[in-house]
Every structure is written in C-alpha cells, then in structure tokens.
C-alpha cells in the first residue's frame, strides 16, 4: 500500500465499513520504511537464519517508524475520508503483552496476553483504532511483533467475525498457480505439507489457522493493492482473495 492512491482507497473502504455498522481495526506493518530509516541512520543489521536481530538501537527505530510515521499516515488518511481514527500500539492500555520470541533475535516478541478493553471503548465512541505492532514486555521492554501475528492476536482477542490479511499477492494459490477462493483449515494444512503453500505465504496461513482456532469466524488473504479490495471481499458474492474457514 505504498502509493497515495492505494492508501486513499483503503482509507475510504475502512470509513465505509464503519458507516454501515462494522467495527474495523487496522493493524499495520512498515518493513520498507524501517529498512530505509535504519539505512539513513547507518544502523547495521545482523541476521540469524535469515531473520533480523532487533537490538536496542533497532527497536527504538522500529518504534519511531511504526508509531510515529506509518501509524500517523494511516490515521490521517482515514480521517481525511471523514472517519475518526486514533493511533495506538500494542503497548497502549496493556493491549498486547509479549514474551521474547527467541533470545538470539533480541527484541522480537510474541503476543502472550491480550486486553482488548481499549478497543471496545473506542468502538463505543465510533472511533477506528489503528494499531502499530509493538508490544510491552513484562519488565518494561518494547518488543517488535510481526504485523500479521499482531493482527491475528487482536482478532482472536476480539473474537472477530473476519480477519483480513492484506498482502501483495492475490491469495492462496493451488499447484497450478490459480487462486483458490474458498478453503477449509484442513486444506491449508494439506497444501502446506505437500509444498503447495510455501515461502512468505506460510506465516500468513499459520496466522489464519491460529486465528480460526481462537474463535475468529473466517480469515481472508487478499491483495491489498487492488482498488476497493476490502469492500469487494466483504460485500460482493465472489469476494477478493482466499476465504479460509474452520473445518
């Protein structure tokens, strides 16, 4: 969602959802902007098994970019379309308490305890929460959390009707390369075991399965760059992307 046009379209969709009675929660990432800021500040990154080590200096940049730049850009876009959005991170109001995922990766966290009260309070006042994927540790640390993981944890805490995972591909594809529009959780497991689902799609489908197991009614993986992708998914017969339901 790098272009202004894509951001405007997304913000318009979110506002329309709220106007028809849906309570949307936006959880975002910001990897490219984080990388650009680290380069600008000449902060070198160490990698372990292909994963970035998030040291103290890096997590401070991550928080600055996610909460200060990306989050406010989305808030401003939604408000510019007539909505009422407020920016938060998982550190606010004890929304997301995290444990360290792997000591070798530094300040990378996994959601351990969720407190969605602040979100219900915002819903009651017709406010759209926009959440940066940062969590608080039990000893006051700040943890960077994968955006999809954070979204899944928040959707699970809310027992959401639907979790939309916006990505840069059109959905889950079968062995022939065609998007599968509807799947059950068991099919996702089978496609992962036989290698049909691979690479960057695996974390997204794992998030989907975890969310379904926690009470989310359905998960959709879709291309967030497509115009009006969110509304097409929610309000048209064929939707957009891949709809995943429990078995």
UniProtKB/TrEMBL annotation:
InterPro entries: AceGlu_kinase-like_sf (IPR036393), AcgluKinase_fam (IPR004662), ArgB (IPR037528), Asp/Glu/Uridylate_kinase (IPR001048), Glu/AcGlu_kinase (IPR001057), NAGK-C (IPR041727). Keywords: Amino-acid biosynthesis, Arginine biosynthesis, ATP-binding, Cytoplasm, Kinase, Nucleotide-binding, Transferase. It is found in: Cytoplasm. Residues 3-222 form the Aspartate/glutamate/uridylate kinase domain. GO terms for cellular component: cytoplasm. It is an enzyme of class 2 (transferase). Transmembrane segments: none annotated. Belongs to the acetylglutamate kinase family. ArgB subfamily. This is Acetylglutamate kinase. It comes from Ruegeria atlantica.
């Amino acid at each position: 969602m790098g272009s202004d046009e894509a951001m405007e379209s997304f913000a318009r969709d979110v506002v329309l959802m709220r106007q028809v009675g849906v309570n949307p929660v936006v959880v975002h990432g910001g990897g490219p902007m984080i990388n650009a800021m680290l380069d600008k500040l000449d902060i070198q990154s160490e990698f372990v098994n292909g994963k970035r080590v998030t040291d103290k200096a890096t997590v401070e940049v991550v928080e600055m970019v996610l909460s200060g730049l990306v989050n406010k850009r989305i808030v401003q876009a939604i408000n510019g379309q007539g909505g009422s959005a407020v920016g938060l991170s998982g550190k606010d109001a004890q929304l997301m308490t995290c444990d360290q995922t792997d000591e070798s990766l530094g300040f990378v966290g996994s959601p351990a305890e969720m407190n969605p009260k602040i979100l219900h309070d915002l819903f009651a006042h017709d406010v759209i929460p926009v959440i940066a994927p940062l969590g608080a540790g039990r000893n006051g640390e700040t943890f960077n959390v994968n955006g999809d993981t954070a979204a899944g944890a928040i959707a699970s805490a809310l027992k959401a009707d639907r979790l939309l995972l916006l990505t840069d591909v059109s959905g889950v594809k079968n062995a022939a390369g065609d998007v599968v529009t509807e799947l059950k959780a068991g099919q996702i497991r089978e496609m992962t075991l036989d290698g049909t689902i691979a690479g960057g799609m695996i974390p997204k489908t794992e998030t989907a399965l975890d969310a379904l197991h926690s009470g989310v009614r359905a998960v959709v993986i879709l291309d967030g760059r497509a115009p009006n992708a969110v509304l097409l998914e929610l309000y048209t017969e064929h939707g957009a992307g891949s709809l995943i339901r429990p078995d």
